[in-house]
Amino acid sequence: AKENENFSFQAEIKQLLHLLSHSLYQNKEIAIRELVSNASDALDKFRHVSLTDGKFADDKPLEIQIIPDNDKHILTIRDNGIGMTKEDLISNLGTIAHSGSLDYLKNLTGDSKKDVSLIGQFGVGFYSAFMLADRVEVVTRSYQEDNGWQWESFGTGEFTIAETEVEERGTSIRLHLKEDLEEFTNPERLKFILTRYSTFVPHAIIMDGEHVNNQQPIWVEPKSQLTEEQYDSFYQYLTHRSEEKPLWHLHLSADSPIQFHSILYCAPHNMEKMGFGVMEHGLHLCAKRILVESQCRELLPEYLRFVQGIVDSADLPLNVSRESLQDNTIFRKIAKVLTKKVLDHLQKMSESSTEEYLKFYDEFGMTLREGVNQDFENRMKIAKLLRFRSSDADGEGLTSLDEYLGRAKEDQTQIYYIGGPSLPQVKNNPNLEVFKRKGLEVLYLVDPVDEFMLAQLNTFEEKQIVSVDSADIEFPESTKSADDEQTAEAEEAASTPGFEKVVELFKEAIGEQVQDVRASKRLSEGIATLVSTGGISTQLEQALNMSAQ
Ligand code: ADP
Ligand code: MG
């Protein structure tokens, strides 16, 4: 036997292991799911290698073996996938790839039932092995090597690696089960778990010579034959979120211009809102049911990154490389169809299930609105999906631009908005007065990004979108009569010598800091206000100045 070499886990892993064995609620079943999913990934990687470099190909079927040993209390999960070199073992099974993952897990408290199942999303699924085992052995041989390696850890601070003979390519994870976990060598129990979590794994899972997951992939089946449960469980498989239901799903099949099947899902929560950085995203891309790429970003634009799912096309070659993907026209065509379908789906949803749509908008509106800038072609579709607070319901609830126009004066040529740091501040802005008096609705924007976006959008249904403090405001003719008297009065007041003096005094006092000081015809209650003469509102100007500092 060769020498053991000792290694220390990265500090974060030590903490994670501690968490896993102590504080977190433990749904131990998910450890099986994570290890099977890693085995499946390893098989995908090997298939990719063998397709791109023929010298590694052989005709052994790629499969996952589940081997329970009741006498020895050992459960082994074996794959003949890509395997690992010594360096792979050190970097893959000793460090956390994603920063932030641990912080999130640490913040989990009592009712963390749902959340521990997220472990797979954070790139730390492997360590769930220590929920089942107090000793884990990884015996592996890389497709590039003739020798193998044995990694071993007791889930404390260290692990060891030793060189060893391994007959075949691939990896075996040997779990020395904890004392009270005999159930995990019970074939019936294992079959239940595998069916529950791993039905959709795209490789054969074999236990006692029996193929456990021999099901048709659901995306090629007709919608009419599928149940909500099947859609939910496929979502859970794809996303590693075993307790979670998607907000909505969309099952598509197209024959032209490209043949493809697809199921798209929207997660119930926006991780970006919870303080994570920009989501990693992408759809699973399959060619004739075989996974080609698991996070294919080119299939949907950035602003739809909350959409997860799978796309399977018979028109794609199996060994597509990243480079060829990028200039593959088939591929761009699929993206175009998917984008349109998602936006149409959202539009329908906003009309027929308003409440559900608003729930969606509350989570992902901030992502969707990026599309106004990113996707010129679909800009108007996206604009229709936007929602804002407005003076119509005194800042309560949300309105669409279409609804706004439905309430607008017949001869109104502009859509008015006002920006501010908070709803009370927006509502008290003196620039609103004249709009209230004339019965004109104003959108309330408390997020500078919304203002920026509306400035970009510029018009909607041929109506100019303007800030209430813009010099370009045109009041509808029909609102003028009611207001005439006051305006005349104000004009008169403004032209009285007394006002000229006031204006002069103001200019002397603050003249350097503003472009101009004028007597106003707009105000009746407030005594002074700031207006903007450029294309953007004062609020946005301030926000831009702040971000420039
Ligand atoms: P993730 O799967 O999200 O990357 P894991 O903690 O589950 O995170 O696994 C960490 C890494 O360990 C994987 O990315 C992979 O490189 C390696 N790995 C785990 N299991 C296997 C296996 N059965 N075969 C080959 N590599 C594996
Ligand atoms: Mg994993």
Supply the key terms:
binds adenosine-5'-diphosphate, nine-stranded mixed beta sheet, 549 residues, alpha+beta, elongated, five-stranded mixed beta sheet, binds magnesium ion, single chain
Termini Cα gap = 63 Å
Strand order of the largest sheet: 1-6-5-4-7-3-2-8-9
Which runs of at least 5 residues are low in confidence (pLDDT < 50)? 109-114
Radius of gyration: 31 Å
Bound molecules: adenosine-5'-diphosphate, magnesium ion
Descriptive notes:
One of its GO terms (cellular component) is cytoplasm. By secondary structure, the chain is of the alpha+beta class. The strands form three sheets. The protein has a nine-stranded mixed beta sheet. A five-stranded mixed beta sheet has the order 10-11-14-12-13, sandwiched between helices. A five-stranded mixed beta sheet has the order 15-17-16-19-18. Residues 109-114 have low confidence and may be disordered. α2 (29-52) crosses α7, α10 (329-352) crosses α11 and α10 (329-352) runs parallel beside α13. It has helices at 11-21, 29-52, 86-92, 101-106, 113-116, 129-132, 187-198, 228-239, 322-326, 329-352, 354-368, 371-374, 379-385, 401-407, 423-427, 433-437, 448-457, 480-495, 497-510, 538-548; strands at residues 5-8, 63-69, 74-79, 133-141, 148-153, 158-164, 170-177, 204-207, 210-211, 248-254, 260-266, 283-287, 290-296, 307-313, 389-390, 414-419, 442-445, 459-460, 463-467. β18 and β19 (463-467) form a beta hairpin. The chain binds adenosine-5'-diphosphate and magnesium ion. Adenosine-5'-diphosphate binds at residues 34, 38-39, 41-42, 79, 81-82, 84, 92-93, 123-126, 171.
